[in-house]
Predict the structure.
Amino acid sequence: MVLSTGTNKIKTAVFISGTGSNLESLIKFSKLNKSPISINLIITNNKLAKGLKHGTIFKIQKKIINFTNKNVAEKKILLELKKNKIELVCLAGFMKILSKNFITNFKGKILNIHPSLLPKYKGLNTHQRALENKDKYSGCTVHIVNSKLDSGKIILQKRVKILKKDTPDSLAKKILAQEHKLYPKAILKIFSL
Ligand code: GRF
């Protein structure tokens, strides 16, 4: 595996709230020579987020931001992004909805990964809803974030077959495994355009 120092790469911040398995896969991807991005900052609203350990392991700066006052929180984040010259934000299981003001004030791209085949099942409980509707397929989507929830331009999607025996948990696991491949692929696609 070829590793690169990341000095000329697009400075990226990843926002998380929980486990951070997508964060881990993005960090590993960022270390490959072919990756256009480096991960320079991790932002979370949750000081107990398990994913913060990846910041410690890979020596990436972490910032825990209290969201009691969203306006104040977003101002703090924008400052951090500016200070660290961040050009790309990847939302990866970030459970706060960013305001229109934040989105227009950040002068870079914001991407999100969502566990459904958008425009189906925006918001939460996507796997449960796909199963209840007896869908044959679900999957995941990487899209650009705009001011409407889970509605920005779609970059890439991956379909996953739903089996009769699937539960919300088993479906989530299968889809998550695909998310780990799809996010890096979508980043490669965007920056090779
Ligand atoms: C993923 O399914 C992602 O699509 C959704 O939240 C989950 C986060 O998982 N937005 P992880 O924290 O990356 O493991």
Remarks:
- The beta strands are 10-16, 37-44, 61-64, 88-91, 109-114, 137-144, 154-161.
- The chain has a mean pLDDT of 95.
